[in-house]
Write a structure and sequence with these properties.
Number of helices: 4
Order of helices and strands: HHHEEEEHEEEE
Number of strands: 8
CATH architecture: Roll
CATH class: Alpha Beta
CATH topology: Thiol Ester Dehydrase, Chain A
Largest sheet: 6 strands, antiparallel
């Protein structure tokens, strides 16, 4: 059986698959340190409106930026731009981008509360898609629903510019102490 689109890594993936592959590689490589500058510059106990772009992964996911970062509530709000090259047939964003947006928001909620003392490892992620994401601005919200010593249960959602819910997600996250 031949893989769809020629298989991953063959060079025949197409622009959407190439962007997803790039995003996954970049996300895994820099997730731990993507927000250090914002955390150093802003109090984590109050919401912030950080205008600074967060490294390559945020660019790949659509020029992302942190709009809110609240340690007390364990909450983050991120903003991304769904670009036409992220879409497949019918101008609908590929689900991997939607998943990346909400996963990033839930991870940032954990980083808001636990700082960069921990590496945020997503153990399990479930996303329910309610509406298609079209090109334009989207907002990803993440919050801590419940937390133990090493395990965090987070929830999140993605909204379009009209405030309509595009997707909701739950995540089980492991807090791994940084050894750096």
């Amino acid at each position: 059986m031949r893989p769809v689109n020629g298989g991953v890594g063959t060079g025949n993936e197409g622009p959407v698959m190439n962007a997803i592959i790039s995003a996954v590689h970049q996300y895994n490589a820099i997730r731990r340190t993507s927000c250090v500058n914002a955390y150093d510059a802003h109090s984590m106990s109050e919401p912030t409106d950080v205008e600074q772009t967060r490294g390559d992964v945020f660019e790949t996911l659509g020029d992302g930026r942190v709009r809110e970062f609240n340690a007390d509530e364990g909450r983050s709000v991120l903003e991304f731009t769904c670009k036409p090259e992220m879409c497949h047939s019918g101008g609908v964003a590929q689900g991997g981008f939607v998943t990346g947006w909400v996963d990033a928001a839930m991870a940032h909620a954990c980083i808001a509360r636990y700082t960069t003392d921990f590496w945020i490892a997503t153990l399990e992620l479930k996303v329910s898609f309610y509406r298609p994401a079209a090109p334009g601005p989207v907002v990803a919200e993440g919050w801590i629903e419940r937390a133990g010593k090493q395990t965090v249960f987070a929830e999140g959602r993605v909204l379009n510019s009209d405030g309509q819910v595009l997707a909701k997600a739950t995540s089980t996250i492991r807090l791994v102490p940084n050894r750096v």
